[in-house]
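not sure who needs this but someone in the group chat was asking about WxL domain-containing protein from Listeria cornellensis FSL F6-0969 so here u go. i didnt clean anything up, its just raw.
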Amino acid sequence: MKNLGKLVLAGMVVLGGTFTYAAPAFAATAGTTTSKGDITFTTDDGTAPTNPTDPTDPGKPVTPTDPDKPTPTTGPLRIDYISNIHFGEQIISGSDTTYKAKYDEVLTEDGVTKKHVPTFVQVTDNRGSNAGWKLQVSNEQFAAGANELTGAVLAFKDARLNSTNLAKPDNVAAVILSGNSVNQDVVNAPEDTGMGVWTNTFGTVTGQDADSENASVTLKIPGETKKVASSKYVTTLTWTLGDTPD
């Protein structure tokens, strides 16, 4: 009987060992220390303007093919690009007529493939102050020497802002320039909006051929306005970027 008792006791030990959980042993901390990370900001002097970006696919660079493209401004708050507006050759009409602008032609990122995009303006704000900005435009009447297109109205409609950023400014859906118009609002970026690169387009592309026209950028000329054949009528638009938004 004594031997039997020993066997039972041994079995209990084995069974107990089967269900017993042993907590892991933790190593003692030998010591702690700290390290640092740092960054220092310098001002973007704007001497290297931001290249134009595709206004229909923000973030992808494009190269406008217009040989007479406007000169960009400089500084951390700057205008990178503005489309020239070409209406081409038109037959003289004695009736009120509205002409559509040509789309902008650009080269895509590969530098070879051509693409048409809407008339657009591009603004970069790299100040870091998040203070906001305002874009305005003024113009002179279309003229060929001393001959003006009296009563002509240049209109930009269907504006759309695009960026890889999310802090969206406010744009004006339609900008109407009736000749010698002064400081018409185009985009207003209140405080904490408009940082980074933004494009403001007028209209959308409905065709990719060279003859496609933008119905959102138009020139309306009264029928009674005097028109001189074989004369190129030109207007100068002045785009002003200010650091005092509404």
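also The longest strand covers residues 213-221. if thats useful
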